[in-house]
């Protein structure tokens, strides 16, 4: 089984946010099975997807992710948006507070193990 990063986005417009995230340059991703935008009992929307590969360098992808995060948060200052990345090893990272180094480490878990 190929390693993946799971992306969970919670908040208003989470489906659109996931679409934009998965369309970032250098990312190859897909909606997760059953990950269509769903409403929980408390009315919060959640969208789940997976990054299956990165194309190009990790640094460029990290830059794209940070730019997306900043654009999304600036455009929707009054909206709450929570993005959690679960890397291929099961470690979770809150994107809202993640450093470039932490994001790069999560992306590197997609690389096949060196033998």
Explain what the structure shows.
- With 115 residues, this protein is an alpha+beta fold.
- The chain has one domain: Alpha-Beta Plaits (2-Layer Sandwich), CATH 3.30.70.
- Helix content is 31%, strand content 27%.
- The chain has 3 helices and 6 strands, in the order E-H-E-E-E-H-E-E-H.
- It has helices at 14-22, 58-75, 100-108, and strands spanning 5-10, 27-31, 38-39, 45-54, 82-86, 92-94.
- Strand 3 and strand 4 (45-54) form a beta hairpin.
- Helix 2 packs across helix 3.
- It is globular.
- The two termini are 17 Å apart.
- The mean pLDDT is 83.
CATH architecture: 2-Layer Sandwich
Helix content: 25-40%
Query: Helix and strand string, N-terminal first?
Result: EHEEEHEEH
The major β-sheet equals: 6 strands, antiparallel
List keywords for this structure.
115 residues, alpha+beta, Alpha-Beta Plaits, 6-stranded antiparallel sheet, 3 helices, 6 strands, 31% helix, globular
